[in-house]
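Changelog entry

Holo records now carry the ligand SMILES as an explicit input line rather than a separate metadata file. Below, a converted record for zinc ion, shown in the new format.
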Amino acid sequence: MLSSIACSKGTSSAPPENAKALAPEPVAAPASPPDPGPLPQIDSKRTFQYIKEIVAFGTRPMGSENHKKLENYITSHLKGDQVEDDAFTADTVEGKFPVRNIIAKYPGTKDGIIVILGHYDTNYPLRNIGFVGANDGGSSTAILLEYANHLRGKKRDGYSVWLVWSDGEEAVRQWSETDSLYGTRHLAEKWEKDGTLKKIKALFVMDMIGDADLNIERETNAPAWLSDLVYQAAERGGVQSHFYARSAAIEDDHLPFVKRGVPSIDIIDLDYGYSNVFHHTAQDTIDKLSPRSLEIVGNTTLEAIRMLDRR
Ligand SMILES: [Zn+2]
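Structure line, unchanged by the conversion:
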């Protein structure tokens, strides 16, 4: 299929051969006690404005000047927060690239970590066609900045939350196991060695979540209990009709963590325009996106985290 050639995130109707052995056994989510508190609310207008500003840098593949500008843009929004880098050089079929995952940590009272991760690089092969990645790269970068606004300034009554702006998600030539996910493959290995992975209660990947016509996939590499928990969070906000109309196994930034047994979910809408026609094209522009979609994904994810805190 043409779409699978043009697509960085390979999809298939069946899970990868090894997914079954690697994925944790599905466990039924216990019913969460009712929470009388109001649902979390992100500022979707501000998030949308972030995307406009990010897109204005132009195309942002790893190693580029615009990428560097975006790195500075991200860190300038995290002043006063606990920020760490996971920086290294990736050796690729197109040469060596500097790769930088940016990590912001917000402490909680409970022992354990919830990670929310989204890539900020844009597609390298499309760098010369004016590809700006409003949805693919832009929406994930922006919603993480908005989560930071939400988390900053107070100790969470729950798990610590770490936000990761991942780099080098995109292939430099053609998507494969070795040409993709440069940042997260490095980070997962590092966190395996230093013991961080054992502390992660759940990992959420945000990718392409701004499409005005929002349809979040049920991504089949995620454990059932975590997919169900996200759906329950969506139900609490009355937005479940935007979730799980379709199921697909998707190769994305969660995979290096899935392979190491971390409960991980990819929150992604990989039907961007009819038959995914805008994905990885110059048409991935802000006019296709909607603040309402950012709000649906943003509030649902924050609610899912609140539910995890209480499990
Ligand atoms: Zn992409």
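Spot-checked after migration. Residues 1-8, 12-23 have pLDDT under 50 and may be disordered. The pocket of zinc ion is lined by residues 8, 123, 136, 170, 280 (CB under 6 Å).
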